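The instructor's notes for this session suggest beginning with a concrete chain rather than abstract definitions. Hand out the sequence below and ask the class to guess, before any prediction is shown, which regions might be ordered.
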Amino acid sequence: MEKIDYQKLEKQLKLEKKSCWEIWDDKIKKDAFDFAEGYKSFASEVKTEREAVEEGIKLAEDRGFKNIVKVKLLSTGDKIYAINRDKSLFLAKIGKSGLSQGMKIVMSHIDSPHLDFKINPFYEDENLAFAKTHYYGGIKKYQWPTISLALHGVVYLESGKKINIKIGEKSDEPIFMITDLLPHLDRSIDSGGKAEYHKINGEELNLLLGSLPVDDKKIKEKVKLAILEYLFNKYGIKEDDLASAEIQVVPSEKARDLGFDRSLISAYGQDDKACAYSSLMSFLDAKIIDQTQVCVWTDREEIGSDGNTSTQSLFFESFILDILKLSQNKGGLEEVYHSYNISQAISADTTVAVDPDYKDVYDLRNACRMGFGLAIEKYTGHGGKYEASEASAQFISELRKAFKQDKNIIYQFSGGIGKVDQGRGGTIAKYLANRNIDVIDAGVALFNTHAPLEIVSKADIYCAYLGYKAFYQG
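After discussion, reveal the predicted structure:
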């Protein structure tokens, strides 16, 4: 009987996971580093949904895309985009078969956890001016005090004039901060006799704005009035204009290389701007195929995708209907639904990477690693697979075939975030699945998810770009 070479058999049959850096040659490593430079510039400048849409339009128009409202007729190869309330962006390249063979869709979200000004934010206490905030999305509140913060947003004056706000990003601009209690006074004793530190609650996330008063003893809140005076003189803003404002408080830090080898990136909002940037660049670079290719940047994912700029909004249907009409089709919903039935999509969203300091929360056999390539989640949700879609075996097989186009596409599979009864997390995938579109989550694995500064690998960002591009062209 012939002796079996089990070492050879193991190599043939067993799944072996290696990082991209172990597999790639020097040329591909350089390509990944070069791609990361464009991404770092994007992540440094784009910190809100409005800013993302504005920058996305610039990148698209540089490649010949036109606003759909200016188009009268569509044909193969035409490139268009549509904007929904300045907070979500829809782009399409018309394929050779229009929508009759469905679409290739990559959808990501451009909102990130942050703090919002409340409707009436300004107040004075102990001769200091503050702004009340309300946090947006899932955050650990203790991470936000004592860090450098900037203001981004818009204010609509009573006259209807729009004022853009961006303060705290340039080195000669002031920053803002939330205070915290010194450890010497932050002690209480629990019932077991152990010292406990104070836990930050939402109403304590108050932004320190200034301390100089106006020179008038008859004014009760002198420092607050000084802040209002500054805003009026510089922008024409009155206090009641803040009711028609969207001002976000975000970290002022720029995207930076992390580590001696510069292989990692630290930046705010990488969930999900790492995937948003990678998906847009892959979409712009992908060649035209039979199917129409669609790239979507959507809003409000971090709070459940509710609202008229979210994935659940019917603006997506409206965009597809406009494409059909401009392509001289009947443009009825039945055509939209038929196209959905034969379409494929990637929900381009980040996931969690195994952190060596917290291994006990992961199922290590079914978890994604940093630097191991595009992170694909077959399903998300939580115990019992609640509140999630699940990609079919057939669709995953087709995706794997598409990735074979490029040997440099390194990818890894996972299912769910963390251990079954401990982890939980949702994405926009289920809202695409509800439209009867084949969909799977695929993105970049992070450290520090939802923290003011998150960490990604340059290898994973580049694999996301390569993977999305292969999907578009597959």
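Then share the key points. The radius of gyration is 25 Å. The chain is about 25% helix and 25% strand.
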